[in-house]
Specification:
- By secondary structure, this protein is an alpha+beta fold.
- The chain folds into four domains: 2-34; 49-157 and 183-217, Penicillin-binding protein 2a (Domain 2) (Alpha-Beta Complex); 221-559, Beta-lactamase (3-Layer(aba) Sandwich); 580-634, Trypsin Inhibitor V, Chain A (2-Layer Sandwich), CATH 3.30.10.20.
- The chain is 34% helix and 24% strand.
- The protein contains 20 helices and 26 strands.
- The strands form eight sheets. Strands 2, 3, 4, 5, 8, 16 and 17 form a seven-stranded mixed β-sheet that branches. Strands 10-9-21-20-19 form a five-stranded antiparallel β-sheet, with helices on both faces. A three-stranded antiparallel β-sheet has the order 1-6-7.
- Helix 12 (294-303) crosses helix 14 and helix 13 (340-346) crosses helix 18 (461-477).
- The longest helix has 33 residues, at 2-34.
- It is elongated, with a radius of gyration of 36 Å.
Length: 635
């Protein structure tokens, strides 16, 4: 019995030993195989330290690879408090160099942490300050590379681009909208230290940062510069409350330029209010559009064939009554008998009231909504507004009448230019967009491309051609004459909208606008300009906004290489207009024959003889009336 107990105990003991061995073996196997990487990482964290190195933020280009948002390499201050031997000296010297209080710097130097980034005092340091810190040669004080966002064109395109904060995070505009693409991945310099933080004599490990992706915009920076210049001139000349301009390719929805006043410099965003920075007026501002909205009424009327521009007539006596409400024409006494083409040319409110009545509220509001009013366009920018339309059940005869000429509804500038583009491009409503592609940072290879998106067809091609032709007539014969460009076919429409304050129309306070495009027979660019309450001038869209749009269109001719069309329309000149004339062919003719027959020119001649053997400018050139023609006489 005794021996049996001994054998049993021995067997039990060995069994327990074997089980313990198996448990230990399995545990070691588990730790060495399955948990090895995690345990190694935890162990490494105990004796390794990382000095962070930021990846560069992605660049932002215009469509021609002109850099609109760039990076400057700067340095930032990082401390390893345990390695700093003379903390008092370090605190004193750094506080002097960084121009902060001793107590403030002491919080960083004496902090119980493995690594302390001095923020914000030690961020994005200038070369001069960085050199002073380096010359201190204090152990535990490190300068690491950091990128600082910079905008080469300062306040140009500022609301579209937005800005970034001190940690290079996007805070507004495209910087915020596409922050996920633009943000790089940080790397580090890994060094090793003992438990007390003292640096060990082990080679450092460099982990390379990854730059963010680059972005190419639809913006043409040359057109953008033209817009910025013209808005600056408008502010200087008229001192408006706001000023807005947008340029778009009507055939794709691509934004070629966009800006507003007031604007801001994202390089110094701290100097501006949140309101100034965040209000991107071309997509945010709501206001009554005035007569530029008449383009929609015109397009709907032509599509539904409720009017014939050339055969149907209307008599404008200066006003029209709708349910007791008197709606006036801008011209005292009215325009008299007009065709509906002349109603469009003259921007005659009573005539457009009749157009709206012929359509009826159901059809008119169907087209208004189909053209995109009352809803966001979907442009790839934050902060877009929707505009305001009457509910159809609240539209009576008066509301129908006022809506037909652009009063009583609120729109945004981006809605306006998008809708008019659809009216003149063949009838396609495009979704506007501003980012063209996402690019790989090293080679700028396209990773993601954004294509034009057609939202819907709103009118037929034939109707669109008729709308464009009528708007060309507005520029050659009507209220848009100040946008005329000799030798080119320009279409457009003026707008003068009385502003509303607490439900009451303000006296002498208007938003004046113009929307223009060229060539009228095959539009390549549409420009919309709106000036809010210009001072010291008669407040009409044709007087203030049309010349601004003309200047931008004139610049765009060269920028986009738009050729002169054959058979360009002639302007219906008024006595006060600047007139262009065509230079005749004089070579081979006798000087005596032509010298009394060249009215509208100044002749300057040289040489001897009776016949003209050379002339400048060449025959067929369009010049201002009374321009000089130089001729060379010979035998």
């Amino acid at each position: 019995m005794f021996f049996k107990d001994i054998h049993f105990r021995i067997k039990l003991f060995f069994l327990i030993v074997v089980l313990c061995f198996i448990i230990v073996f399995v545990r070691v196997l588990y730790l060495q195989v399955f948990k090895y990487d995690k345990l190694k990482e935890l162990a490494s964290d105990l004796w390794s330290r990382d000095l962070p190195i930021e990846g560069n933020r992605g660049l932002i280009y215009d469509r021609n690879m002109d850099i609109l948002a760039d990076n400057l390499t700067t340095t930032s201050l990082v401390l390893i408090p345990n390695q700093i031997k003379d903390k008092e000296y370090c605190t004193s010297e750094l506080s002097k160099i960084l121009n902060v209080s001793y107590d403030e710097m002491k919080k960083h130097v004496y902090k119980k942490t493995s690594i302390e980034r001095v923020h914000p005092e030690g961020r994005k340091l200038s070369n001069e300050i960085a050199d002073k810190i380096t010359n201190l040669n204090i152990e535990g004080v490190y300068l690491v590379k950091e990128a600082k966002r910079t905008y080469p064109y300062n306040d140009n395109l500022s609301h579209v681009l937005g800005y970034v904060g001190i940690d290079n995070q996007g805070l507004s505009g495209l910087e915020l909208k596409y922050n996920e693409y633009l943000t790089g991945k940080s790397g580090s310099i890994k060094y090793f230290s003992d438990a007390k933080g003292n640096k060990l004599d082990i080679s450092e490990i460099y982990e390379e940062p990854t730059d963010g992706m680059n972005i190419m915009l639809t913006i043409n920076n040359d057109i953008q510069k033209s817009i910025e210049r013209e808005l600056d001139n408008a502010v200087s000349k008229y001192n408006p409350e706001h000023a807005i301009a947008i340029a778009m390719d009507p055939n794709t929805g691509e934004i070629l330029g966009m800006s507003s006043r007031p604007n801001f410099d994202p390089n110094n965003y701290q100097n501006y209010s949140t309101e100034e920075i965040n209000r991107n007026l071309p997509i945010w501002m709501n206001y009554e559009p005035g007569s530029t909205f008449k383009i929609i009424t015109l397009a709907a009327s032509l599509e539904e064939k409720t009017i014939d521009l050339y055969k149907d007539t209307f008599y404008d006596g200066g006003s029209i009554r709708v349910e007791g409400a008197k709606i006036k024409c801008w011209k005292d006494g009215g325009h008299g008998a007009e065709t509906f083409l002349q109603v469009v040319e003259n921007s005659c409110n009573p005539g457009f009231v009749v157009m709206g009545q012929k359509l009826g509220k159901e059809r008119l509001f169907k087209y208004i909504k189909n053209f995109g009013f009352g809803s966001k366009t979907g442009i790839d920018l934050n902060g877009e507004a929707t505009g305001i339309l009457f509910s159809l059940d609240k539209v009576g005869p008066v509301e129908l009448a006022t809506t037909a000429f652009g009063q009583g509804v609120s729109v945004t500038p981006i809605q306006q230019i998008t809708a008019v583009s659809a009216a003149i491009n063949g009838g396609k409503l495009y979704k506007p967009y501003i980012v063209k592609s996402i690019l790989e940072p090293e080679t700028n290879t396209t990773i993601k491309n954004y294509e034009p998106v057609v939202v819907r067809n709103v009118i037929s091609k034939d109707t669109s051609k008729e709308v464009a032709s009528a708007l060309e007539s507005v520029v050659t014969n009507g209220t848009g004459r100040n946008a005329f460009i000799d030798g080119y076919r320009v279409g457009g429409k003026t707008g003068t909208a009385q502003k509303v304050d607490n439900g009451v129309y303000m006296s002498g306070n208007y938003i004046v606008s113009f929307i223009g495009f060229l060539p009228a027979n095959d539009p390549k660019i549409v420009v919309y300009v709106a000036i809010d309450n210009p001072k010291g001038v008669i407040q009409y869209g044709g007087t203030v906004a049309a010349p601004i749009a003309r200047s931008i269109l004139l610049d765009s001719i060269d920028i986009l290489n738009i050729q002169k069309p054959e058979g360009s329309t002639e302007k219906n000149y008024q006595p006060w207009d600047i007139k262009y004339v065509t230079v005749p062919d004089l070579v081979g003719k006798s000087y005596d024959d032509i010298r009394f027959n060249l009215e509208g020119f100044t002749i300057e001649y040289s040489g001897t003889g009776k016949n003209i053997i050379y002339q400048s400018p060449e025959p067929g050139t369009r010049v201002l009336e009374n321009s000089k023609i130089r001729i060379l006489l010979g035998e």
